[in-house]
Amino acid sequence: MTKRDVDGGSGRPAATQMAFPLRRVTAMTSDRFINGPSNVAARAWLARSQWPDGRLWLWGPSGTGKTHLLTAWAHEHDATVLDARLFSTSSAGGRIRVQGNLAIDNADSPGDEATMLHLLNDAFSQGDRVLMAGRLPPSRSHFMLPDLASRLRATATTATGEPEDDLRATLLLSLLADRQLVVSQSVTDWLWRHLPRTGNALVSAVERLDEAALVRKQPITRALALEMLPDLLTPEE
């Protein structure tokens, strides 16, 4: 079991009171990930037993499976999952210490850069691996701390791309199934043809349609999609 403690500087382990939640989402497993050419390079890097300096940065557009890959890797390697946006200096006068492998989501927008730097330093000294994910690579992310910026820019990177057509079709069906939504094939085919060719558009569309169908207690139809997704759908030919 992964051990976590906060050291307030006294040299004694403190009670486990974190300034942000630790996530262990097991639903995003590797067998549920949809493989495709757009993510083959990322999957190859994640399958390696070692990374340079034990760190890897995974980047790509929203909706291309970064969090799924990060969470699946964490589950397979008993890693603690943290959301960098929730890093804070207000952790009862101490700082976060994590023993074991580490997976950091939203690594390109940490709430506190010193916390992130300490975590990377600890992992390196302990010989643990760190997987980080963000929308941008380190070279295009802005960090105030020079030590953190240089450390991250020296980190190996890999990327996910926008899904190709076959993957988009499978992703749309998977997103609907995950929410237990029953939609006719004619509607799903129509959505696939008229939604933007990005993973984020598919995720956003399914979320909005699910919410509308739940509130109105009605099935997802083309009419509902036209009403709820006017900013996403391309005009009818």
Automatic annotation (TrEMBL):
Q: Enumerate the spans annotated as Hda lid domain.
A: 177-222
At the top level, the lineage of the source is Bacteria
**Gene3D superfamilies assigned:** 1.10.8.60, P-loop containing nucleotide triphosphate hydrolases
Alphabetized InterPro entries for the sequence: DnaA_dom, Hda_lid, P-loop_NTPase
Positions of the Chromosomal replication initiator protein DnaA ATPAse domain: 28-86
Write down a Pfam family by its short name.
Hda_lid
Task: Write the protein's name.
Answer: Chromosomal replication initiator DnaA
| Higher taxonomy | Bacteria, Pseudomonadati, Pseudomonadota, Alphaproteobacteria, Acetobacterales
